[in-house]
Amino acid sequence: MNISQPYLLFLGDVTDPLAAKTARGIVKWRPDACLGQLRLTSDTVCLGLDDLSLEQAWQQGARTLVIGTANAGGFIPRNWVDTLIEAGKQGFDIASGMHQRLSDVPELSELATKTDINLFDVRHFDEKLSVGTGQKRAGKRLLTVGTDCSVGKMFSALAIERALNERGMNAQFKATGQTGILIDGRGISVDAVVADFISGAAETLSPAFNDHDWDIIEGQGSLFNPSFAGVSLGLLHGAQPDALVLCHEIGREHIRHLPHAALPTIEQTLEANLLAARVTNPKVQFVGICLNTSILKETEAQQLCQQWSEQFGLPVSDPVRFGVAAIADHVTNL
Predict the structure, then answer these.
(1) Model-level pTM?
(2) Structural domains of the chain ordered from first start
(3) In what side-by-side order are the strands of the sheet with 7-12?
(4) Distance CA 164, CA 37 (A)
(5) What is the CA 14 to chain-centroid distance, rounded?
(6) pLDDT tens sequence across 205-260
């Protein structure tokens, strides 16, 4: 999946700022890819971008209209369809992370059939994949892993990519989830891949390379999450990582949505991920720990990071509060 940039971010008529987190993620990590926003009402959430019409955005070079919001059920509201159709008629590709496929909207499906516009449903993946082989391939790879899902694996990967590039290296983010794909314009949504092909999807996402320094692969789920461990294991095998970064949320009491499932210890998580990753790269190592310390005061968070760094012998940081400089410095020395 390769989505043309720059984008016009479509916010519809949503008024809940949390519903626009996908669009906010794109603006934060790829600001140069965002030409403006399209809002249906003045009450719609604002990203601080220029309000542009479809015509204005096209004239300025936008080529993809990205639905940058989410809602309960993941459906495309009917009152948005006219705008999407008009965008397609003007030549825009359209990208969405909704559960409902763009092609399920009859008018859009017909338009895509009659023209050369692309409809990108990033939550779905229909292309052919091969099973993984585990064969050693050129290039260095870093994978973010976690004690659970939703602990900051995408944010940490993007922060590390940016920090490495700021140090003069050439690092490339490899997206494995819907928001990550929309941020980067490329990737494979691995939770939409049939289980047998997950490791193969990771090999396809990060093939052998010698034209840059690192692939920074966005992790998914956790080996300890009963719902998503299969995806996590497939990524560990297919990514063939040289480096791992562990992500964890301080204060989480149990596996998300599963109060009967206890969180693993940090030691258990380090050990299990190394054991699984060594199947395809015996030399894999952890290079850092990224924490979500939002539950703590900043001084407490700083103290905890220092304490854990001494305890585990790794750089430890909250990437939101303190950045990932120490982790990036560690990676540059590998």
Answers:
(1) 0.91
(2) 7-121 (3.40.50.720), 140-332 (3.40.50.300)
(3) 34-39, 7-12, 64-67, 93-96, 119-121
(4) 30
(5) 22
(6) 999 999 999 999 999 999 999 999 999 999 999 999 999 999 999 999 999 999 99
